[in-house]
Amino acid sequence: MDRRIFFTSFSRYIDYAPSDADGFTDILSNAVVLNGLNPLDHIDEIRQGSLDLTYLPNILHECTHHATFNSPVGCALAALWASSQTNWIQQVGKSHPTLASRDLAVFQTARTLLTPLAEGLALFAEHDLICGPAPILSNVSQHAMLLFTKGRLSRLLDGLCVAPLRAAVQPQSEDVLSRTHTALLEEARRHSAWLERKAHLLSQPIDGPHRYLLGYLAVKAMYRALSKSVGELMDPEAFFLLLIRHFFHNEELAQTLANLIPDNVEPQEAYLRVGVDLQGVVERIQDLFDALYADTKEAIAHALLPLLTTSGALPLTREDPHATEGRLPLDLDFLLGIRTVGMLNVAWPRLMKHRPEFRFSCLAVEVEVTADGIAIVRAGKESKEVLRTPAVVNADRGVYEGTVEAIRLRNIRTTVICVLSSHGLVAVLDCDTGKWNAPELSDHLDDLPSAIAVEGAMHAHAEQHDLVGHCGTIRDMLQGYQRQADQGALSMYLQLACPGWQAPRRQTIFELTSEKGLAGLFGDGERFLRVCQISSLVGLASNVESVAQALETNVKDFMAEIDGINAEARDAGGFPPFELHNRWLLSMI
Amino acid sequence: MDTRSAVEGEHSFSSQEQAAQFLRQHFAVLSAEAVAESIAAIGTVTELIQKVPVLSTTPPGSSPVLVARYRWVIKNEDLGLADAFLEALRNASSVGFFVGVSATDTGKWAAAAVGTFTALFKLCRNVLNKGIVLSPNAYAVLITLKALGPLSSEDLLPKLQQSKAEWTAESLAKTLESLKAMPMRNGSVRALVAQDDQRRWLTADV
């Protein structure tokens, strides 16, 4: 793939190799880049809400990251990431920490400690999340419903009449959208492609990159423990939202992340202050876990009650200047602003402003805007013209790289397809009305940067991080704290995934799963695939009879098979993946 | 799409279908279309097409999706081996080795040829992977024995001479001895042919 250029000032630029990943979320802009879905080919499906189900798992996963980091803690992490770009000059020539290196150390530690939880939640959304009886709905489910369920409603309703839902937790009978959305998810998760994804997850090394498996097992164990303690948390939506809001909407944690160190301190004191800040972050995160388990009901009240009075939607324009929804507290806003003010550079795109918008597809294109304001979009190796439409008034004239992206806006209700340049909007289609360049949308999205600009900024920031850590003592400090955070995260999440286990037993499961994940317990052949298939069908908890029927076996033989699987796991030193309670089968994996 | 990968000596594809299409086009030059079609279809069974996991690159600071990615690879040395096999099979078919199948009956011939190919290719490729080179004569003996064995040396020689007149009793004996005890790179010895209690030759462990 050709390398790309990103300008970091009028005259300086970096070049980098673009990613070939299926999708990712950027910590700074909270932009989701999902490749492989050309929005222009799917306009009707997007409008109708019947998008191809092939895209469902990736959208669920990345939408969860988007929802998780669209929060005070997410904003704080973004500001810390940006700090090394905006404040690096303070670090030049100094062998003791300044704000830039302090922020990088805190970012690395917090990110290491929170990544397994964030990935566990995203994988929970992919493989387990369904609607329950609680009158709350995550943004993740709202987006997914409007993209995938809305257009399939009548077919799903027919299915509901024929086959009752299997899950232990069911939405209220009158809630049509929730029941049909759950039915869609259950149906999709039975497909072989989804089973392959589950098998791929469960065969990840327990301590692999991003700690996917460790995070997932921890979240599943937390679901089991917390729903035992408070029965209402059997509702997956309630549990899911509780975790997101309890950890990532915690303003005290965000404040701790964004703490400042003064400029004019002695070098030794500067190191001390970084250490104190890091200790504060670690303790704050540990306190959040402790509080969640010690007083779950209080945590629920604090995290979920506010949702009963809001919908999670944000206005596109600041209609009510006194409205506080989505705004950070003033002091936190100030602390984060110190880190990001340096990004107000004309060469840089506006990266922080559009964090609440959820992008769910991306096509890299060539954009030409003519002198008379017509946007011509070309794509593919042959630069074939794929779109021709009037451009917005502020669109840059000329020929340049851009993207076509489908976006669900912060008001939850509007879906658009945008043609974007590095610095902002070229053209916008409202998928509902079919109209191009409506004034309100054009104003709101005027400075929305393309995914190409987002990725360029990610690489530019990473280069600056290297510069911040250029001095030997600073580099040693960063590496030392990173090692400690790695060990701390591994220990913490192993305890969460294996509650009540002593250290030697946890070490055994760690060694068993260190290369091939749970395939280390069952082998990586037919037996392991069977275990994955059963866990995929069960989800969180399902009726034994219905699972046996889906597997085309009888209940007696199926229960014997489950006993055999559990015994095999126990004998290998692991934990039984399935539990039976009153004809409900629960999956720990 | 054939990426003519950065790894020398192999062809890389982003899907199994593309790899199979490449095989179809490659073998169609050497053999009947039905054979090419059949061999392409069993590409993964014979491991002529190998599925290799791929790690994707993600930007720094990103939270990527967890998706397994693969490429499908055909190695040039495997193609060479397959070509040698097909050449031997073509010679075999021209003298009616496949009982009940005429050379013009490409459908049945294809099924019989593919059966032999499947049985022998993976075995011989594993032998090659251990650093041993099999000669065309060795392939011809293996294929003939697989199709018509067990055969005595006296019965085997005229069959081979029908496709290649240069065969002698001496060259046949030498080839059989080498196939009886094929040294592997790891120091072990593998028998690709063996004799039954009537001293007739047959393929071993195939």
Explain what this protein looks like in three dimensions.
The complex is a heterodimer of chains A (about 600) and B (about 210). By secondary structure, chain A is an alpha+beta fold. Helix content of chain A is about 50%, strand content about 15%. The mean pLDDT of chain A is about 90. Chain B is about 50% helix and about 15% strand. Chain B contains 7 helices and 8 strands; from the N terminus they run βααβββαααααββββ. In chain B, strand 5 and strand 6 form a beta hairpin. Chain B has a 3-stranded antiparallel β-sheet. Chain B has a two-stranded antiparallel ribbon with strand order 5-6. Chain B has a two-stranded antiparallel ribbon with strand order 7-8. The two termini of chain B are about 35 Å apart. By secondary structure, chain B is an alpha+beta fold. The chains are: A alpha+beta (about 600), B alpha+beta (about 210). At the A-B interface, strand 3, helix 2, helix 4, helix 8 and helix 16 of A face strand 3 of B. Strand 3 (about 25) of chain A pairs antiparallel with strand 3 (about 60-65) of chain B.
List the helices and strands and how they pair.
The complex is a heterodimer of chains A (589) and B (206).
Chain A: E1 4-7, E2 13-16, E3 23-26, E4 32-34, H1 43-48, H2 56-69, H3 72-86, H4 99-127, H5 139-149, H6 153-162, H7 176-188, H8 192-202, H9 212-229, H10 236-248, H11 251-257, H12 267-294, H13 296-304, H14 330-340, E5 358-369, E6 374-379, E7 384-390, E8 398-408, E9 415-420, E10 425-430, H15 439-444, H16 451-468, H17 472-497, H18 503-512, H19 519-522, H20 526-538, E11 541-543, H21 544-550, H22 555-571, E12 578-581, E13 584-587
Antiparallel strand pairs in A: 1-2, 3-4, 5-6, 5-8, 6-7, 8-9, 9-10, 11-13, 12-13
Helix pairs in contact in A: 2-4, 2-5, 3-4, 3-11, 3-14, 3-16, 4-9, 4-12, 4-17, 5-7, 6-7, 8-20, 9-17, 10-13, 11-12, 12-13
Chain B: E1 10-13, H1 16-28, H2 33-41, E2 50-54, E3 62-64, E4 69-75, H3 76-94, H4 106-129, H5 136-148, H6 153-163, H7 169-180, E5 182-183, E6 189-190, E7 193-195, E8 201-203
Antiparallel strand pairs in B: 1-4, 2-4, 5-6, 7-8
Helix pairs in contact in B: 1-2, 2-4, 3-4, 3-5
